[in-house]
């Protein structure tokens, strides 16, 4: 039986990867995917904990996260398509009308 | 097995908001193009209905939905702020949508969904419920932010809001997961109980709180997580900006307060310094960055960052005060009301003056406004002076309450920083005023006559700001009472 | 204890290695041993004998993305049916009503985008 | 606490009422706007004279008090009251406002309505500051004054008005925000002895005096610092004075008159009303430093105004010098000197106000303040020059005129405390004579250097109407000083009384000041005796 700490470490690593990707990637889609990665890391953590604690609600939370992530994905992709249509680039550094 | 009818009452505002949202959403395609005005009336009806529902809800205190939500005077207070602000925004946005000729129906529908989410946040006592409410409001506001489909700025603001917002959400969720792992529950009260003897998970708990705070700090635009604010506020359609500046901030503060005082009430030592540092940073960053702005919306955005800092000072004060945290929390609540009034009013005027396509957003565009539209100029001046915290305005008493709470908690340095940064605020607020009053307009431009909706918002907010100074008694007692209901 | 736990997967590992190695050997053999005379017809993409037209990778129309998004949404909503079905007996009528409300809300959304013409392909 | 009538409220809020009336008028109906404004101001002046009738001289403490609950928590009350200290300042305000209105009768051409509106609102603010006895109420009026002054300078000022306006507001706010913090801190401390704490000045005063409320030494120093900074900026004390010349020079004449006449007095008033009575130990400990600053201010102001090419700037710097004098008198903690300080505030209000008015009249004719543009004005405009001379003499403290009384009392009191301070004070008086007379000589005497000046018209009836009352006051305050002193005397002694503490460990450091405190009443006797030839009390 693999101890749940392994899974937690994995989820932490995934989350960290997501953060790093979010900070360093320049393509909007990639950034968006990095966020999804973070959310899935969270899901992993939830499942692990609920397994560890012998409670079921953690897994129900995962359902919520998945659904919300899907809704976010829909909206996000819509926005990204909007941007892609108006300027022929998905590079965030080119999206700079508003000085950051 | 069915929930008692009281539960329905306890979520009445959310129900009303959702129902009207869906109603408008479905009705929109059926209503012919020329009769879209009906949407505005429907939206107004919904807003008023929601306010009535808040009143209904306030009569049925108690936990609802198996303890996912609670109706106490705290949540009632925040519902008042959130739904009040939403109603004002509905009033203000009708003419805006006409002018920009944008889809009426969807706007109001999304606005109602966003408001509903905020309402859930305000009365949630369970972290997953918070999360759901947060997402309902955020997703709706992402769409609202890019509502001006023609404007590139609008897309950009929506994109940044979306990316950074969901980034923050991920942090919040990870925090929830950690807290869940440490205590085996996500109900705030249970967390407090569990945290008391879950000493072996102390590390995990602290880390979890840190993550939760990051998520919240994004939403309340507290440094160092405030970068998105100016861009989003500038790019979003101005009525939406008005909503973003008032509603979500109030809701996020509600969540923050509930988390720190209900869940982590006993462990104020773990979060006090986080809040302290964030507050100081936020005040400094917000105020000093605002000085450099030439665009009114950006300036107001930075000023709202600064005000988040002031509110955090009160939170820190409440945390440091230990048992006597009520004063600080009451100060936060009172200030939130004043702040919502000021910001909604200010952004409404900005959207009115922006003209078609939001062309005129530079401070210099306001030159000579005092002669062109004296009333508008006077109202804007009032909001700015209130933001600055001069007497005769609600902002002054709000600052007094915060100062006092902080002093009682012996946070002298935080108070000094707040005082100094307040003076810095004089620079940029007064600049707008002198442009409006002392400068003659360069180009011959007369702003459009004030539309009835905008006029109503101006009147209500201005009256509210003055009234809160002269008769703060009732609201303050309510706030103090709500503060007590938090523990 | 973890090692012992992992040990039981060793056969699987062996099986994978063997499979991978076999396929690799076959491919390499065919490339090295077999001789080739490429003609234009041979180089063409194989489309069941049809004459391929246009480029294989041209950008999809936005409509596909739109439909895909809608599908994701309505597909994912279904996730809540599983826990619901799991405890359906205990919930009885309440659960049924709840799910009806849930589906009703989904239907409202469906009706909305139907009326908006989001499902109307040639628009 | 009985409410003794509504007089104070009426005096305070009548101008506000008038400004509301102005709102009702049409913007282009200038004559009626002016008339209504003037009528309001005059009515208010008459009402304020009723204060004299209601005010019982010689009785310590506040009179005609009004106390009404305003905000329950924190307990902020609407508490007004007048005593010998504020009485004359209020009347000075109500006396100068109609004059300010008259002097801007024609010189203000655009946005007339807003101008008089601001002026009246400003009057309400100023009177409120002098009368309010609740700390928060005081602060409210104090801040409210900023806005109309900001607009007065910013809209109707001269070339660099924006800069001046912003500078003025920023300086004042920087001080006042810290004062607000100090007020709230004091409130928190008072919670120890009064359940829930109090913002009520008399209450806090009593608590401090009977030792129920004791401030730790460092706390007292910090509080004193916060209050003192706010007031020192308003006075303005030497290093903090830089906003004053800009504000004065850029402001329209009426603005300068109000600024010099009343706003500056708020600083010294605040020192007397809050800093000394509330924080005696700190005051005594820091008195030498304050005195040094004051003396620097006296000499510096005088020297700078000596070399000023610009008449208005010259007057501005002269008020830096004069008010340094006042501060010196205050911080000698001697009843006579304090009484002199109070008197000197009034003098300065009238004389400097008059000087600014005359400068404004010259500006109306020539649109310049530069002294070299004038010269030999006595020939074309004898009357105005006469007024000018008279005012200069009063400002430099010629005996029989008002300036002399104040300066004499200050010197008399200060001398008994510290000879060096008195010497510097005297030096200030001499320098004042130098730069004022020299300026007058360059403006009025000699040949008419600039051709334009030959044809300048003399005082118009309106200008005479403005200047005569001032000159009458100058003369009256010079010879009839008992009328005023008899009402300020108790107040000035009360300040000393209020500085007493049950047991004063802090005093050990400054024992030097104690003996003078003992024979204070005697000193007061002699002082007034000198003035009125052993008149009755």
Question: With helices defined by DSSP (H or I, 4 residues minimum), what is the helix count of chain C?
Answer: 6
* Oligomeric state, counting identical vs distinct chains: heterotetramer
Q: Within the largest sheet of chain D, what's the order of strands?
A: 1-2
Strand content of chain D: under 5%
Mean pLDDT level of chain C: 82
Just give the CATH class of chain C. Mainly Alpha
| N/C terminus separation of chain C | 62 Å
Order of helices and strands of chain C: HHHHHH
Radius of gyration of chain D: 22 Å
Structural class of chain C: mainly alpha
Largest interface: A-B, 43 and 37 residues
H/E element order of chain D:
HHEEHHHHHHHHHHHHHHHHHHH
The number of distinct structural domains of chain C comes to 1
Strand-residue fraction of chain C? under 5%
Structure description:
The complex is a heterotetramer of chains A (100), B (487), C (123) and D (537). By secondary structure, chain A is mostly helical. Chain A has a single domain (4-94), classed as Helix Hairpins. Helices cover 77% and strands 0% of the residues of chain A. Chain A is built from three helices and no strands. The model of chain A has no long low-confidence stretch (mean pLDDT 86). Helices cover 78% and strands 1% of the residues of chain B. Chain B has one domain (5-486). Chain B has helices spanning 5-10, 12-30, 37-58, 73-99, 104-123, 127-145, 152-183, 188-197, 202-220, 228-235, 238-263, 268-291, 296-320, 326-354, 369-372, 374-388, 394-408, 412-438, 452-470, 473-484; strands at 62-64, 69-71. Chain B is mainly alpha-helical and 487 residues long. Chain D is mainly α. Chain D has a domain at 287-537. A two-stranded antiparallel ribbon of chain D has the order 1-2. In chain D, strand 1 (63-71) and strand 2 (76-82) form a beta hairpin. In chain D, helix 4 runs antiparallel to helix 5 and helix 7 packs antiparallel against helix 9 (217-234). The two termini of chain D are 29 Å apart. Classes of the chains: A mainly alpha (100), B mainly alpha (487), C mainly alpha (123), D mainly alpha (537). At the A-B interface, helix 1, helix 2 and helix 3 of A face helix 6, helix 7 and helix 10 of B.
